[in-house]
Amino acid sequence: DQQVKQNSPSLSVQEGRISILNCDYTNSMFDYFLWYKKYPAEGPTFLISISSIKDKNEDGRFTVFLNKSAKHLSLHIVPSQPGDSAVYFCAASVRSGANNLFFGTGTRLTVIP
Amino acid sequence: NAGVMQNPRHLVRRRGQEARLRCSPMKGHSHVYWYRQLPEEGLKFMVYLQKENIIDESGMPKERFSAEFPKEGPSILRIQQVVRGDSAAYFCASSQILTNNEQFFGPGTRLTVL
User: Fold this and answer.
1) Could you read off the pLDDT of A65-75 as tens digits, one per residue?
2) Closest Cβ–Cβ partner in A42, A46, A106 for B104
3) What is the rounded average pLDDT for all residues in chain B?
4) What is the per-residue pLDDT for B1?
5) Which one of A78, B16, B24, B94 has the fewest beta carbons within 10 angstroms of its own beta carbon?
6) At A69, which helix (H) or strand (E)?
7) Would you call A103 and B101 a contact, using CB atoms and an 8 Å cutoff?
8) Concatenated DSSP letters for chain A?
9) For the domain A4-112, what is the CATH superfamily, name and number?
10) A103 contacts in B (CB within 8 Å)?
């Protein structure tokens, strides 16, 4: 039962352009969402998060948008850089109560120089 | 401030042996989580521990798997009588406070069962 879904396994973007990674979820109890970036043979690195009381959170080149009615969030990276090439995981949790994160299956982003 | 540390980074076991995976959380973090990543899949939650307590083990297989986080020392994920299907990357994460779900991950232990 995959409660967090990333339907695009891979994405290629030209350097300098915008990368948009998408994530959908099914559990309406989720109220906190995170994006992690993962390089091969390393653990996931926290990128940015958003609470369900917001619809946008921005940190430098990274912006996360949340559409609660559609149960959809997206990560925008602009401008994209070759060093952004990695696997990006979307994760969700219920802040009160259980603390485990539910992860999507990841999207492999390749930024072409 | 050292990050989350896991060892060993790579572990090879034959079917039927035991695997012990260790995790030292970030300094000041008292919440530890274990996740498993099978090939081509996302990370799946296994267990959440605080010092000397298992808080949530809803993701742990019912048999052969156990976890602990003693008062002193690292958290241990133990897999008894390993089978080939246990081959995966096992990640540990830690967080500082209960209401902040920004979990910081270690580099993982890659378990290969021959």
Assistant:
1) 999 999 999 99
2) A46
3) 92
4) 52
5) B16
6) none
7) no
8) --SEE---SEEEEETTS-EEEEEEE--TT--EEEEEEE-TTS--EEEEEEETT-SEEEETTEEEEEETTTTEEEEEESS--GGG-EEEEEEEE-SSS--PPEE---EEEEEE-
9) Immunoglobulins (2.60.40.10)
10) 35, 42-44
Instruction: Report the SS3 class of residue A83.
Output: helix
Residue length of chain A: 113
pLDDT in tens, A14-52: 999 999 999 999 999 998 999 999 998 899 999 999 999
Minimum distance, in Å, between the CA of residue A24 and any CA atom of chain B: 14
Task: With CB atoms and an 8 Å threshold, state whether B101 touches A89.
Answer: no
Of A62, A65, A66, the C-alpha closest to A109 is: A62
Task: Give the residues across from A80 on adjacent strands.
Answer: none
Distance between A10 CA and the closest CA of chain B, angstroms? 12
